[in-house]
Structure formats: C-alpha cells, structure tokens
C-alpha cells in the first residue's frame, strides 16, 4: 500500500462533493481526503502498489474541473 499526495485547488466541502463521484470511479483507491485548511489543498490518496495511480487520480480530478499536481511519483 502506498500514499500519494497532490496539490489541488479543491478548497471547500462543495468542491469535495463535486469531485467525489469522479474519485469513486477509481476502484483501486482505498481512501482519499483533501486537507482544505492546507494552503496547497493537499489531496492524499492511499492505494495498493499498482498501476499508474498518479495518472488515474490526476485525470479524474481534472475531469471534475480542478487543477492538480502530483507531489509524489508512481
């Protein structure tokens, strides 16, 4: 299991609600959360060591209309 972090512009509970259906489309995710109090709005994702989680998460967050930059590499 690996933890991945991303800098985003997901900054409120409404934004989290908007991105949730997109994140639910990634069955490999064990958990995810956004620290909206952090100035960088850090999205933390936990997933098994497999596939290209950074690419999957980045694509879904962008599809939801938000910006995202991976802080950790696959």
Please give a quick description of this structure:
The protein is of the alpha+beta class and 74 residues long. Helices cover 30% and strands 28% of the residues. It comes from Arachidicoccus rhizosphaerae.
Can you tell me about this structure?
- The protein has 74 residues and is an alpha+beta fold.
- It has one domain (12-70): 2-Layer Sandwich (Alpha-Beta Plaits), CATH 3.30.70.
- Helices cover 30% and strands 28% of the residues.
- The chain contains 2 helices and 4 strands; from the N terminus they run E-H-E-E-H-E.
- It has a 4-stranded antiparallel beta sheet with strand order 2-3-1-4, covered by helices on one side.
- The chain starts with a strand and ends with a strand.
- The relative contact order is 0.34.
- The model has no long low-confidence stretch (mean pLDDT 93).
Helix percentage: 25-40%
In CATH, what is the class?
Alpha Beta
Overall morphology: globular
What is the subunit organization of this protein?
single chain
Helix tally equals 2
**Beta-strand percentage?**
25-35%
Total individual domains: 1
**Gap between N and C termini, in Å?**
12 Å
N-to-C SSE string, H for helix and E for strand? EHEEHE
Rounded to an integer in angstroms, the radius of gyration calculated over CA atoms is 11 Å
Low-confidence stretches are none
């Amino acid at each position: 299991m690996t933890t991945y972090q991303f800098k985003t512009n997901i900054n409120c509970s409404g934004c989290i609600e908007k991105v949730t259906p997109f994140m639910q489309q990634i069955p490999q995710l064990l958990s995810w959360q956004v620290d909206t109090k952090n100035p960088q709005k850090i999205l933390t994702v936990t997933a098994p060591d497999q596939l290209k989680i950074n690419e999957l998460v980045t694509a879904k967050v962008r599809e939801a209309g938000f910006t995202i930059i991976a802080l950790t590499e696959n």
